[in-house]
Amino acid sequence: MAEEKKSVRYAEAMDRLQAILEEIDDSAVGVDELSDRVKEAAELIRACKAILGDAKKGVEEALKGLEETEEADC
């Protein structure tokens, strides 16, 4: 599962989520396929949350490093 999260890119996941929503909105998905689409969407959402969480941590670490550098320079 962790490998799957890393292999999907945020933009690709969002594009696929949009496509799933459009299929559901347009009633292009039958009842039999609906469960599969919802499960796929849930996995994509989990992957996006993980990607965003990693990005947030990276930004926070970078900003913390800048703050520490500025404090040391003063």
What does this protein structure show overall?
- By secondary structure, this protein is mainly α.
- It has one domain (2-73).
- Helix content is 88%, strand content 0%.
- The chain has helices at residues 2-7, 10-25, 31-73.
Spell out the key features of this protein.
74 residues, disordered N terminus, 3 helices, mainly alpha, 88% helix
| Average pLDDT for all residues | 88
N-to-C terminal Cα separation, in Å? Answer: 46 Å
Domain count: 1
Shape: rod-shaped
- Uncertain regions: pLDDT < 50 for 5+ in a row? 1-5
Helix content: over 70%
Q: Would you count the extended β strands for me? A: 0
Give the DSSP E fraction (strand runs of 2 or more residues). Answer: under 5%
By secondary-structure content and strand pairing, the structural class works out as mainly alpha
Quick take:
The chain is mostly helical and 74 residues long. It has helices at residues 2-7, 10-25, 31-73.
